[in-house]
Write a structure and sequence with these properties.
The complex is a heterodimer of chains A (358) and B (241). By secondary structure, chain A is an alpha/beta fold. Chain A is built from 11 helices and 15 strands. In chain A, the strands form 3 sheets. Chain A has a 7-stranded mixed beta sheet with strand order 12-11-7-10-9-8-15, with helices on one face. Classes of the chains: A alpha/beta (358), B alpha+beta (241).
Amino acid sequence: MKPIKIAILSLTHGHTRKYFQTLNDNPGFEWVAVSAESKKVQEIFYKYGYDVPCYMSDEEMFEKHPDIEAVVMASGNSRHLEQFRMCAERGIHILSMKIPTFDMNEYDEMIKLVEESGIICQVELEMHYNPVVNRMKKLFSENQLGVVSGINATNITLSPVWAFPWQGVPEESYGKRVPLNSNNTRFRGGALCDHPHIFDMIRWLTKSEFDYIFAEVGPNIREELEVEDIILVNGKMKNGVSFLLDPSWSRLEERLEVPGPGWEVFPKRMEVNFNISGEKGVMLADCFGPNVYHNGAPNDRYTVQYTYFDEWIGMMDEFIHCVRENNTPKINLMWHKKTIEAMNACYESIETGQPVFL
Amino acid sequence: MVNNIENAVKLLLHKYEVKANVELNLLPGWSFLNKELNDNDMPLLTWRLNRRFIELKKIVSDEVVENVSMLRFCSLGDPNIWSLEALMYREFDLCEFITGSRIAYIHATLTNGLAGNIIVKLENGTIGSVEIGVQAPAGKPLIERHEIIARRGVASDIVVDTQVPQSSIYTFTENGDMEYKDVDNELFGMDEFQVEWVRAAFQHQKDPTQSENLIKQHDHLSRLVESALKSNSNKLKVKVA
């Protein structure tokens, strides 16, 4: 199969570096270029040592490389629509970050752009290619728990805002400046916007859609942030399954400008766990465990050192397959729309103080 | 190679467009203990491809923990799969792989091919305990612990304040308690032991230049196992030849 000529846009999303090895190793890709949003980002990219040219604008990159067939859109949420337009116009396939946009008018325009241009757009929800999630799906398909009645899922992390500042700026992460509610000095655009996975996974596992959803924010553990960092969500799916979701930034971090060793203050910097109750019993899953552990450099703190992150391999294999075979990706814009709507409903619930029916 | 391993290796070879030498007999090194290697036999150090051990080695070599003083390793297995010799082979190699130093002395106490407790001393002065046994029930994955104690920091593949290795999924249902540990989505369905074997075989096909080093290390590990057996028989600390 002819390799796909691929580029990465912007390099400002927290997941950017996860793509480097996959684009480099997978013979299904020919990694031809990247664009950077700032000199600082460009310098960081060059430190990785890949022999890939880095341009200071998307336009320049596309001009120099008219043969680019696909991009990883690794930018802040507020830049996505503009880049969708640019790619659709050029017939360039898109691997979108996990939040295409929170503005549903923009979202509809993205769907239209993709449909009319005939490009493939896959949304980066990499948990679907995680081996533990794969096992959960298998156990569900085998009906090991029988009829499921309750799901508790966490997607809790440290906050990436010190390394990726756009994630703490309401206009850039949520798309506009909207107060959480009338009594609040904080705005939409924080931890919730960083954590769509559990909203998506509960739909996938239960094969049901959200019926109603309620959300509550706590006092921020990082007082200087103007977006929420502590949030809880509960509600029911249309099939009656009750759920509790925690998409908080509840693990404190050292305020590093470039993620690296010593980033975490709490030993485990990221957790996606599920507790699921069904008529035949209970399942507990840790999608990023077990690992190895140490209390060495740089801070002599007890630390979880992760042992596997191969989600990007499977996800990009699917992208290759969809581009070359003209197939619809599992996580496409239409599927993902209801996840984004549910996340928006959380903000609406915080605003009104009541559950929101979808 | 057994069929499912061979098929998984073929899958990776095809995906990553690697040309293979199909004649090679790519098995975990301990399978060749007490046998003369023929031209196609390749004793793989499969555990070196396990991400747990890659990260532990990295923690040492990147000086996240500094000045390693002692290792505390334990490996208790199913007798249908493991022998004491096989476990010694694996654990001795892990001592050397993780620390980057060779074992120089061994004092082994072994009981009827069923269990053993060994103290090793490495060339760099690090000491290590290796606890092995083959009395775990059939079908039980290895019960393991690999702890590294240094002047700066401790590293381990067991989480603090527990005795048992963790899994990623536990189910408690009317059919009993089950646990699952899936570590590689590309090789989904294979257990940790099979995954490391496939990864090691694939790596060897990608980079056959490692053959000579693998064979040298196999000879060395075979001598270490012999030394341990001799130490046990003679009730003496043995200097490794």
